[in-house]
Amino acid sequence: MEMIEKQKMAIDFYPLMRHALREAEKGFAKGEVPVGALLTNSDGRILAKAHNLPISHHDPTAHAEILALRNAGEFYKNYRLTGCTLVVTLEPCIMCMGAAFHARISQLVFGAFDPKSGAAGSLYDLPADRHFNHRIEVISGIMEKECSDLLQNFFRDRREKNRVSDPRRNQIQAV
User: Fold this and answer.
1) What is the pairing mode between strands 107-112 and 85-90?
2) Which of 20, 50, 132, 157 is most buried (most C-beta within 10 Å)?
3) Active-site residue among 65, 74, 144, 160?
């Protein structure tokens, strides 16, 4: 496994985020909340990728980040992923940030902020908490609009399907 080098190579995160968005679109097609994640080594080579699957796997931990970390751990035969970067379309939740800390990733790159459950700067800022014995560099807002638009389209479609499928919602209620 690569260790963090003193002179880190500059990586263009936009192509990586496009890969993560393609993963998120796979989740969208399956009816999952469209979040995609991938893990790269220090050179930017993709080691693992995943999309949300908690609904289809009946598993509340089947977030894209967790699945990508698991896949990379299998690849390396090690749960420590020192020197790796996690690229995700949506700011990770507390569970996913905890997994990232335990995996010892070096860097987190995300697109859209999550003001309701984000744990990397929005609702909580775990990477800034000096109580942890590991530091994760955070780069936020990469392709934020594209990532946000995909999520908004998903939830708009879901609301529309729910409105159409429930005829009672179309009736005017008498007061």
Assistant:
1) parallel
2) 20
3) 65
